[in-house]
Sequence to fold (882 residues):
Amino acid sequence: MASILTNLFDGVAYGMLLFVLACGLAVTLGLMNFVNLAHGAFAMAGGYICAVLVNNSGWPFFLALPLAFVGSAAIGIALERTLYRHLYARSHLDQVLFSIGLVFMSVAAVDYIMGSSRVFIKLPAELEGQIDLFGVGIGRYRLMIVVICGLLTLALQLILAKTRFGSRLRAAVDDPRAAIGLGINVPQVFAFTFAFGCGLAGLGGALSAEILGLDPYFPLKFMIYFLIVVTVGGSSSITGPFLASLLLGIADVAGKYYVPKVGPFVIYTVMIVILLWRPNGLFGRTAAR
Amino acid sequence: MTALSDVSTHAMASARWRISEVAFWVLALACAFLFPSRYLIMTDIVRLGLFALSLDLILGYAGIVSLGHAAFFGVGAYSAGLLALHGIITEPVIALVAAGLVAAVLGFLTSFLVIRGVDLTRLMVTLGIALLLEALAERFSDITGGTDGLQGIEMQPILGLFAFDMYGKTGLFYSLIVLFILFLLARRVVHSPFGLSLRAIRNNPLRAAAIGVPVNRRLIAIYTLAAFYAGIAGALFTQTTALASLDVFSFERSADLMLVLVIGGTGYLYGGLIGAVVFKMLQEFFQSITPQYWLFWIGLVLVVIVMVGRARIHRWVLFVPNLIIRQFAGRKAVVAAPESDVS
Amino acid sequence: MTIALETRNLEKSFGGLRVTRDLSLKVMQGARHALIGPNGAGKTTVINQLTGVLTPNSGQILLEGRDITGLSVHRRVLRGLSRTFQINQLYADLTPLETIGLAVSERMGRGGDWWRRMGTRADVNAEIAEILARFHLLDVMTELTSTLPYGKQRLLEIAVAIAAKPRVLLLDEPAAGVPESERHDILAAVAALPRDVTVLLIEHDMDLVFSFADRISVLVNGGLLTEGAPDEVARDQQVRAVYLGEAADV
Fold:
């Protein structure tokens, strides 16, 4: 019983992590209809920024996390302004080719600069080990992830629901053309959101080094996971991707623990079935844009 | 009466062999004789060219985008490997066809998933299928050899006459002949009414249906045929290298294939072949500079091609190749891939 | 006289919006029937249901007495129901020769031939030549469709539909967007359609409707307002109020 709860908790932590990693992609796809397969590269950037700051420069872990966010967001906005924005009107095929190119470049560049082996971030002592909660063993690190990601999710939800920027963003996702007609500067909203999404991915990358592992092939290895979150969750709200992340996280952890022989192909099968059954995602709107 | 003869002349014009096409194949054969030290890389190019030809059939002619074409390559590769390893079919040519048929069956079954939906769904579904197969191959490692791949494949002589040699001479000529035969078949197919209907579907599926083209049936047919081609390419890989490992399914293989076709241009059959030559030369070149990091340069090539615009690249940078393309195609080559999706 | 095309109590809703309301329409064999109505009356929705792009929520569509409601788009074409589009739907990268050639091949059931090269069947070629000549497209037959002048594209749009040898032809605003100088060619082509082909014309242009049609149905808000011979419809007070009145205001 306790092990089930521990696994469930691990799954939730994993799922929340996936959500923080992937929610930026949902916005890219939903708002600009842009297929950005390179989203994982921004996560990797955050991870490596954090690793360098903590391991080489001796920064405290909790101080390095915001820097991972800022660093990835800065890279994100730089690329958005120079490269991405020219491709919004292009075909999905062009976007895919372009972002695959970026992934390849990032993989090779990180391999060249940082080496190909897995990188570990030195964690502060208070994040190691487990605490015992009503007989359920809960990893401290995962608890921290749930707290941070949970707070982030709440904050995102509040920003989207309550702020002026949030309402502009929602309007733009709902109907970009109408939003332009209403005088909303959609490219600006998008640039900001893109950077923010990259920042979140960077933060997620830093947090995930301990759990998912951080190496130059990170963007390729987890590309499909991010895509699953977005395709299953749909891109019309953040609730969809959030629920999809949790499901994926719990299913993946439980699957690896209880039926290790079945392997990851169950997840791929489920993705394909959902795509065919509801092309706009399990929690997405049914009507096509 | 003159109108009628005009019509039949022009209708048949596009299918007529051009001198440049003959020259292309003579040149290919000449290379095989002239560079005996380069058999292995040339075999590699031929295989890649066949694989790209397969993608061109669905992307360039039918407008189906795929991020998981390696699925069929991989199935063909493992089928050929297993047939040889367990001595089920020892004669390579029959085994080759059998492996292609296995891939075709898979193509037929998955085509029903792929023909539904828009580009984005197709990208995801094809990617998903390739990853699924890779995961399956890893899971059933007792059959596939897992990460080590199939060990100890020994190839019997082709038709019982031509043994595979260590320099790869037999392998090259074998691959070249297979490529040529399949190319002839593809050439026939794209110049037939069937091929014309595919181009119509890519141009405007709505109108294609409105003149009586059974759109889905045609797409299923070409997807199955393309899977057969990819399976043959995979089987050639196994037969000429005596290897089959998990990376035959890899995403990088599908992505590289896209690049090959982007370099060569889609929709005139020679794009995949020319693209394969250029791609391998680029690969050789970059690997000679930075052996480990050539992925970076490939990525850069992709980014640059897309940023500059695929059509423009083909107009400017590949001005000379484009002249050749025009010779081959007899019309302005359709180098830009379909822009069918509404963005 | 037999009925060529018929709808029985056709209903179609999008969400809560009823765009086709209990529409029962009869188009007689060999008729020149026009379906008119103000913008937003649901004419395009009707044509999309007739051709199979949309499925009605309820009701039936019959072609020459046979129920085709459940048939796919291409099967209806093979049964003899063909259409043109209000906005050209052509193949940009194909030539008129290839476009017509494909349509003729498909009609003869040879469209799936994957072994035979194009242009090797004399009967197909003869028919292509005849259609290209009839629609004045012979001189441009080897040029890419996307490079043709608009008037030629419009002719091709009608020629493709004719190549399917329909017994019932749906013409969706055939002269839409055609410059005045090329208009004559289009109208002549429409007027020269064989008499045994039943034509249902969906049109905005009243001059064209009254010069061409021998029967007119008026569609308003998705339902049939009235139907009759052109002079009856022209005199109809309701029609004047709803349709012509509106047109006069513009």
User: Anything to note?
Assistant: The longest strand of chain C covers residues 3-14.
